[in-house]
Design goal:
Layout lengths: L3 E13 L2 E12 L3 E5 L6 H9 L6 E6 L2 E5 L4 E2 L7 E4 L11 H8 L5 H10 L15 H14 L4 E5 L7 H18 L2 E5 L3 H7 L2 E6 L2 E6 L16 E9 L2 E6 L2 E6 L11 E7 L2 E5 L3
Parallel strand pairs: 3-9, 3-10, 7-8, 8-9
Antiparallel strand pairs: 1-2, 1-4, 4-5, 5-6, 10-11, 12-13, 12-15, 13-14, 15-16
Helix pairs in contact: 2-4, 3-4, 4-5
Length: 288
C-alpha cells in the first residue's frame, strides 16, 4: 500500500467572474508523486495551491503533511508559510536583480551545502551561468533558476503554478525534462497546475480535473485526452505546427491533430491557441 504523505479536505469560498463559488477539495497524495491539477481558469487550482502553501487561509477543513497538521479549523492550527517546508514557483520569476544565479541557490538553502547546489546547477544547465545576474538571462534561464531555487531548500512539497506557460514549446520541453529529473532526485511531492495536456502527460503520475471548485474527475494522465472527457470545460493550451488545405495542425501530446478551419491562413506557425475536447474531436480558438 502506498504511503500517503498529504491528506487534505479544504473549503474556501472563492469570488469569480460568475459570482461566489465554494471550493471543496479532498486529496490524498502518495509520497514521491507528481500530481497535476487541470481545468479551466477560475476553477480553483491556484487557490488550492495557495492554501497548501499557507498564502491563503481556508474557511474550514484540514491539511496534514507526513501526519503533521499544517491546518485544522477544528483544532485552530494554521502553520505560517515559513513553517511549511515548501518550494513555490509562480508564472512570474520573482528573482533578485542584484544576486547571481549561484547566490540565489545558496540564499534559498535551509542548510548550507555546495554539493546539492552544484547538482541543481548541472540539472538545470545553469553551471556556465552561475555568476550571471537575472538581467543577463533569457526567459527560459530565469525560469530554470526559479525552479532550481525552489528546490534548493529541499522542500517536502514543490508547488508549480503554470511556471512554463510563457515559454516557447522547445524551451518548455527541455524544462519539463529537467523538472522531472530534479523531482526524482529530490524525493519531494510535486503539485503542478497546468492547462497543457502534453505537459501533464510528460510529468504527472496522477491528475485531478477541477471545475467550479470541485474535483470532476481523477486518474492517470490519459484522462485529459479526447473521448475520455465529458468536458467541454477543459482547455488545452498548445501551438499551431502546420496547415492543410482547410485545417490547422496543433500539437496534442506527441501527435499533430488537424482541426477544420475555413481560413487557416489567418493563423501562423508557432501561434499559441486553446483547444477544447468535444465529443468526436476538438475545437480551438485564439486570443488574437
Amino acid at each position: 500500500m502506498e504511503e500517503i504523505l498529504i491528506d487534505l479536505d479544504l473549503h474556501k469560498q472563492m469570488h469569480t467572474t460568475d459570482g461566489f463559488t465554494e471550493l471543496h477539495v479532498q486529496l490524498q497524495v502518495p509520497a514521491g508523486a507528481i500530481i497535476a491539477l487541470y481545468g479551466k481558469s477560475g476553477a480553483g487550482k491556484t487557490t488550492l495551491l495557495r492554501m497548501i502553501a499557507g498564502l491563503t487561509r481556508p474557511d474550514s477543513g484540514f491539511l496534514t503533511v507526513d501526519a503533521v497538521p499544517w491546518f485544522s479549523s477544528e483544532d485552530k492550527i494554521n502553520k505560517k508559510v515559513a513553517e511549511r517546508n515548501i518550494g513555490f514557483v509562480f508564472q512570474e520569476y520573482a528573482l533578485f536583480p542584484h544576486m547571481s544565479v549561484l547566490d540565489h541557490l545558496k540564499y534559498a538553502q535551509a542548510q548550507p551545502g555546495n554539493a546539492y547546489v552544484h547538482e541543481l546547477l548541472e540539472i538545470f544547465h545553469l553551471t556556465a551561468l552561475s555568476d550571471k545576474k537575472p538581467g543577463a538571462l533569457s526567459g527560459g534561464q530565469k525560469q530554470r533558476l526559479a525552479v532550481a531555487r525552489a528546490l534548493a531548500r529541499k522542500p517536502q512539497l514543490l508547488l508549480l503554478d503554470e511556471p512554463l506557460s510563457a515559454l516557447d514549446w522547445e524551451t518548455r520541453r527541455t524544462l519539463q525534462d529537467e523538472i522531472k529529473t530534479a523531482h526524482l532526485n529530490s524525493g519531494a511531492i510535486t503539485i503542478l497546475v497546468s492547462h497543457d495536456a502534453d505537459e501533464i502527460q510528460r510529468l504527472a503520475d496522477f491528475v485531478y480535473i477541477i471545475d467550479q471548485g470541485k474535483i470532476l474527475k481523477k486518474g492517470k494522465p490519459e484522462i485529459v485526452q479526447g473521448d475520455t472527457l465529458e468536458l467541454s470545460e477543459c482547455i488545452l493550451e498548445t501551438e499551431i505546427v502546420s496547415f492543410r488545405s482547410a485545417s490547422v495542425g496543433v500539437r496534442i501530446n506527441e501527435s499533430v491533430i488537424y482541426i477544420s478551419e475555413p481560413d487557416p491562413q489567418r493563423f501562423r506557425i508557432g501561434e499559441r491557441v486553446f483547444v477544447t475536447p468535444v465529443k468526436g474531436g476538438f475545437i480551438f480558438y485564439s486570443n488574437n
